[in-house]
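Justification of resources, computational component.

The compute hours requested in this renewal are based largely on the per-chain cost of generating structure records like the one below. Each record pairs the submitted sequence with a full structure-token output. That output is archived, and it is also reused by downstream analysis tasks.
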Amino acid sequence: MQAVINKNFAPKHASSIKASGNMKDPILRKNFLKEFGISPQKLVLANQVHSNIVKKVSNADCAKIIDHCDGLITGDKNVYLGIFTADCMPIIMVSKNGGVKAAVHAGWQGLKAQIIEQCIKIFNDDFGIKSDEIDAYIGPHIQKCCYEVSKDFEQIFNVKLENNKLNLAQIAKEKMQNANIKNIVISPYCTKCADLFFSYRKDKTDARIITVV
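The structure output for this chain reads:
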């Protein structure tokens, strides 16, 4: 089990590793959350579909899986948000005052569809949180060392690939920096080669880790 706690985030956030088991299993997930004093009844999850849809949730949504979205955001301090991943990026955004937090599932499709920009827009428009008042964390994901893609991705993201390798975190970081988010922490772990996390690209597994804020 890996706990990731950064002093710049008011709520603590936690990422599971493969040793914790498949976090889609409710019993294993409950045991993992218990380590952090989190009740499953206070957790909201997303039924992820590789979209750019971010949904606002509240205490009324606790213990639910919100349909057809890849991001969750709340201004309710009693609510925890969870995102499943197995190579895609789990992205956590938290206002500096701790009042608003978001969890986003972002693979290349979500990045292309501008899910990061959509989440930031909700911070700005719906909660009155300016971009420079947001801290961000990108959790374990498939990194440039292992993420080989086609040349088409150069046009999709306006980047120059090195050995056909795509850097998802760099694209996400630039998107957040362009929106004026300054404090961005990126996990050094690659889900494919670190052998600590589930990797769909490596094992074609249905198992997932979870990142919670």
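The helical segments are 26-34, 108-112, 115-127, 152-157, 168-178, 200-203. The domain at 2-142+169-212 is CATH 3.60.140.10 (CNF1/YfiH-like putative cysteine hydrolases).
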